Amino acid sequence: MIHTRALTRVFNVKKDTVEAVRGIDLDVEAGSLVAFLGPNGAGKSTTLRMLTTLLPPTSGTAVVAGHDVTRDPAGVRARIGYVGQRNSAGENFQVRDELVTQGRCYGLTPAQARKRTDELLDLLGLTDLAKRGPGTLSGGQRRRLDIALGLIHRPDLLFLDEPSTGLDPKSRAEIWTHILRLKQTYGTTLLLTTHYLEEADNMAERVVVIDHGRIIADGTPAQLKSDLAGDHITITTGTEQEARAAAAMGQGEADGTTVRLRVPDAAAALPEFLRALEGAGIKATTAQTGRPTLDDVFLTLTGRSITDDDVSA
């Protein structure tokens, strides 16, 4: 569905050169749901814009839905949908008319455009809003309309750039319900960017972590967390001296009277660690285990947290 080799894009800013994308090698299979994750300026949105022919690469190759993005951009556009970060619908027509017009622009007959519009209105819960103007919709409703506009021509592949940004938690959950329904109903290949770690963790089948224009990790959320981050054990001790001794025993870190360890399997490691502390005369006053997050993966790979940055691009 998507095949790229060393796809790059370089931006010149004043006298400095900022490499937004420095070589993305990526293959995406049909029917999958892939999330791009990374901090602000990592190159996520730039990559999407190149793959959707909105931004020409300076070098490299990319084949999307069987068509080269530079040699046959029209062929790519005919087979993909793109939902950007800004709203797509205008203000001059009702919701239903916006969708019908979009369908006609893609070459559908009037009857085909009307039929497809009714199908999408139903699928995305917009039927009762069909006669409303886009400007009267809530943020979540308008985002669903954006997705409908991207799907009007039945694309094989849908790109979504930050589809739930700025929405309240209830609207974000509704958007994801509809996104997952698209995959189930049509088998649509979905490639999206998100700055919500829990979305990538809980919804994506595959997470591609990007930093400084390069892919630094690629796999299922479970694989990345298991292989690169590991579980956490956190205990507290009565004194800082005991905490430092406990950290040395477990090859962890001490912060005051708190000790943190990273282990492959916390449930199995914690009892053994507590027994070792007891044998050394160190009493743990509290103990708890934790599962890693994708932010822990990024921290392991880069030494910093994704949430340290304004992760919106």
Write the layout of secondary structure elements.
Blueprint: E1 2-13, E2 16-28, E3 33-37, H1 44-51, E4 59-64, E5 67-68, H2 73-79, E6 80-83, H3 95-105, H4 110-123, H5 139-151, E7 157-161, H6 169-186, E8 189-193, H7 197-203, E9 206-211, E10 214-219, H8 221-229, E11 231-237, H9 240-250, E12 253-255, E13 258-263, H10 266-279, E14 284-290, H11 294-302
Parallel strand pairs: 3-8, 3-9, 6-7, 7-8
Antiparallel strand pairs: 1-2, 1-4, 4-5, 9-10, 11-13, 11-14, 12-13
In short:
This protein has about 325 residues and is of the alpha/beta class. It contains 11 helices and 14 strands. The longest helix has 18 residues, at about 170-185.
What is the CATH class of the largest domain? Answer: Alpha Beta
The fraction of residues assigned to DSSP E strands is 25-35%
What's the helix-strand series? EEEHEEHEHHHEHEHEEHEHEEHEH
Give the name of the CATH superfamily of the largest domain. P-loop containing nucleotide triphosphate hydrolases
Low-confidence stretches: 12-18
CATH architecture call of the largest domain? 3-Layer(aba) Sandwich
Question: Given the C-alpha coordinates, what overall shape results?
Answer: elongated
Query: First CA to last CA: what distance?
Result: 24 Å
Side-by-side strand order of the widest sheet: 6-7-8-3-9-10
- Binned, the helix content reads 25-40%
> How many individual β-strands?
14
What's the average pLDDT? 89
Rg over alpha carbons: 24 Å
Helix count equals: 11
Computed structural class? alpha/beta
Count of folded domains: 2
Biggest β-sheet, characterized? 6 strands, mixed
CATH topology of the largest domain: Rossmann fold
